[in-house]
Amino acid sequence: MLPTRLRKNIGIRNLVRETQLSMNDVVYPLFVVDGQGIRREIGAMKDQYHLSLDMLGAEILALKELGIRYVILFGVPDEKDGEATPAFAENGLVQEAIRIIKKTDPGMYIITDVCLCEYKSDGHCCFFEDDGDIKRGKTLETLSKTALSHAEAGADMVAPSDMMDGRIGHMRETLDRAGYESIPIMAYSAKYASSFYGPFREAANSAPAFGDRKSYQMDPANSKEALKEIMLDIDEGADIVMVKPAMPYLDIIAQGKELSYLPMAAYQVSGEYAMIRTAVDNGLMDSRVIFESLLSIKRAGADIIITYFAKELQAMLKDYQ
After folding, report:
1. pLDDT confidence tier of residue 213, bands split at 50, 70 and 90
2. What are the backbone angles phi and psi of residue 8, rounded to the nearest 5°?
3. Residue 54 pLDDT greater than 70, yes or no
4. Catalytic residues
5. Closest Cα to residue 71, out of 137, 156, 170?
6. Domain residue extents for the chain
7. Mean pLDDT score of the chain
8. What is the Cα–Cα distance from 4 to 8, expressed in whole angstroms?
């Protein structure tokens, strides 16, 4: 415990505070959709929006004013198919969004989510054999092809969220072979099969048409498995590892940070956002709880926090820190 004089001295409080938040800690998710003139609020996620490409430039400038310098892109196309071809199309939603953002603000750092669930007609992150087993070779090829298309469009980092075994190594080799050795990979290393993803599935229109994703996402009861997955991704060449969701798995963030020398990311997912947003908007909690939630994730060991609250952080830093 700090000496009483230090705890009471407001002027020195920030100097001795163990955990500090800044705008450099947060990444803001963006959902890009087909169409024109669309800035449509996502029903399950108040104050979060689907954006058509023509609305993206204005949004990026607004984010810059709010101090946000990092975004992660999700594409939500109208048309999907069994081969996930919209994921790696040269003029796909994410690929075009990257070009628009870089033209609007070359300094905005763009991370792209690499998965197939938003682009496949069955809503799954992989392909399947006739007997139901994962068709691993085809899945890895398609994921790597998607990551490469993002790099070619100008992405600064790719973030595979599929949880397929071996995808980091395959993606690293593909990027390196094409001359993109400097593009980092942020691996969704410990991605749990969580009920906290519910609102996101509306945002990304990615609910599976059959079954669930428990065969390739993690059992919420397991922690040692998470550490194993983190180490496997590190061994395959990941540059950043991630735990998702964040607050229900703070113990995994802390253990993973101790295990790894790499930067640790955490995704404060849609369900976490929706619960806190609803509680604040209905007067059940003070808005300070938003700041406290982000602080807890940082304190647990996250260097990077993907959060839908990023737009509010700049004002909170002035009021609460």
Report:
1. very low
2. -90, -15
3. yes
4. 191, 244
5. 156
6. 21-320
7. 90
8. 6
pLDDT at 216: 59
Q: Is the pLDDT of residue 239 over 90?
A: yes
- From the centroid of its chain, how far is CA 299? 19
| 21-320 under CATH 3.40.50.11500, yes or no | no
Report the binding-site residues for Zn(2+).
Answer: 115, 117, 125
Query: 145 is written with which tokens?
Result: 């092809």
Enumerate the known binding-site residues.
Answer: 115, 117, 125, 201, 213, 229, 270, 308
Mean pLDDT of 84-113: 96
Structure tokens at 173: 């080799």
Token representation of residue 185:
């990979």
**Tens digits of residue pLDDT in 112-147:** 999 988 888 877 777 776 777 777 888 899 999 999
pTM (2 d.p.) = 0.91
| C-beta neighbour count of 16 within 10 angstroms | 11
- pLDDT at position 39 over 90: yes
Angle between helices 270-281 and 288-300 in degrees, nearest 10:
150
Annotated binding site for Mg(2+): 229
Amino acid at 157: M
